[in-house]
Amino acid sequence: MSETIHIYAPATVANVACGFDTLGFAIDRPGDEVFARFSQKPGLRISAMHGDGGKLPREIEKNTATVAAQAVMDHLAMQRGVEMEIHKGLPIGSGMGSSAASAVAGAMAINELMGRPLSRKELLPFALKGEAVASGGAIHADNVGPCLLGGMILVRSNQELDTVSIDTPSNLYAAVVLPDIEILTVAARAVMRKEIPMKDAVTQWGNLGAMIAGLMKADYGLISRSLVDVIAEPYRASLIPAFHEVKQAAVGMGALGCSISGAGPAIFALCEGDQMAFKVAMGMQRVFEHHKIACKRYVSAINVNGAQRLA
Amino acid sequence: MSETIHIYAPATVANVACGFDTLGFAIDRPGDEVFARFSQKPGLRISAMHGDGGKLPREIEKNTATVAAQAVMDHLAMQRGVEMEIHKGLPIGSGMGSSAASAVAGAMAINELMGRPLSRKELLPFALKGEAVASGGAIHADNVGPCLLGGMILVRSNQELDTVSIDTPSNLYAAVVLPDIEILTVAARAVMRKEIPMKDAVTQWGNLGAMIAGLMKADYGLISRSLVDVIAEPYRASLIPAFHEVKQAAVGMGALGCSISGAGPAIFALCEGDQMAFKVAMGMQRVFEHHKIACKRYVSAINVNGAQRLA
Prior knowledge:
Chain A is of the alpha+beta class. Chain A folds into two domains: 5-167, Ribosomal Protein S5, domain 2 (2-Layer Sandwich); 172-301, Alpha-Beta Plaits (2-Layer Sandwich), CATH 3.30.70. Chain A is built from ten helices and twelve strands. In chain A, strands 1, 2, 3, 4, 5, 6 and 12 form a seven-stranded mixed sheet that branches. A four-stranded antiparallel sheet of chain A has the order 9-10-7-11, with helices on both faces. In chain A, helix 1 links the parallel strand 3 (44-50) and strand 4. Chain A is globular and about 60 Å long. The two termini of chain A are 15 Å apart. The interface between A and B is large, with 42 and 42 residues. Strand 8 of chain A pairs antiparallel with strand 8 of chain B, so a sheet runs across the interface.
């Protein structure tokens, strides 16, 4: 009986306000799990899948976890067969990096099964290949990057897959709420402008540069002033009922800033301290409940470890 | 006989590749000097002006140094008269922050004359007011900021005048060459697009974020990969004969990166070490001379002090 590898890959917040398509961070929970073991049958197959409510494809060439796993297997020219059990802990289409987590877990599972021939960074292109099947081919590493590498990740270039780890203050916490509404990624992309005024672009990159400096200097005031999005949020906010009210509540209670997580509908707020983050998360949840929208909430430090092998 | 205040304000490189309208740094030389003393006559006047070849206005409401000085005098409700002697060491219309240097020197001279009631940061809006008269009213703090505050300055917001000092590696040097050609600021602005593709904007802010991280981590490789401008350089390069050849020479000799300083025609390269910077500066100069274009060159560490009171 061969060993079973057990991987946990956490949720991530991408498009961090001023960091559209470039900045993301990992949180502790929720996350996806993948169990992988060598099998007698050649090739890769999914032996079981749980937690997706039957929504995700079981075909290995369509499932994000197995596409990523297969890419690693091809790269390593693996001869032996592998069977994989996938536990979706992450809600699908939440804006919390669900496809990225499965892809990272799939790629890591194969790497661990083979005795870890590749580094985390070397797994990046394979995990991204997995995520790409779910996102219609577009490659943005701001979910896969932090899920795989942990912490706050700046993607210098999505084309060159150049990622930079950004130190964050130890007392920086995220409050994330997920309202029970559906946003199609297609719709979230469709509302975005293809061209933007130079003025808005300068505002956005001034804020992103300052956000990086604020994080590295542990300057909460600067982080707060930089947590502004003039590119995506003004257009995507209309897809989330009560967004402005939720944001107002978070900032009013003392959050450093608040914006849409990924393409939404999840909303994140960054906070100084865990108590503030708990308070802010509950306050945001209350606004949705007031509007009769069910809402999950999560509170987490910045997860500096990213995906982990649990067994 | 009252004391004479003597201020030196250095050249600055703005629009640092990926940091269009947001990132600038000070160098040691050249610079402008202002001498100021109380006078019997009320109000502000220019007693002498040197080094501008008669090109700059002598009217106090049009000269950048005196507009900035007057703004500080008004703010402090000064009753006594002041006379000011201006020595332009900085070439006009060079892209090396000539107007900013005069404005900073003018504002600082008044502040010193009054016993320094204002901090450097508090002088920022007054110096910018001076620079604005030369730039047709547009306010961008990426020259005035580093000239006044020293070092590498990120302007988070030009509207809010929110500036951030970015630590730089001690071995980071700039090579700057100034070819003897004229670019009208109007022309440099006219070639720029008012709207830019989202894709270019994401590329630019990914690079700016990474540049900030690279500087703060003293990661020369990352600084080098981030020194890319897809916004201004591709459009302004055509205004500088042989630009691409000069850049090619700089990068070929080992510069970390090379781009247009401000709106040009000066060109800067960032380098690891002073010897590399000297070599690169000479190499860039050689290209211009090969094209029969006279060219000055400057080599400097990042000037962390900015403007100084010399007497």
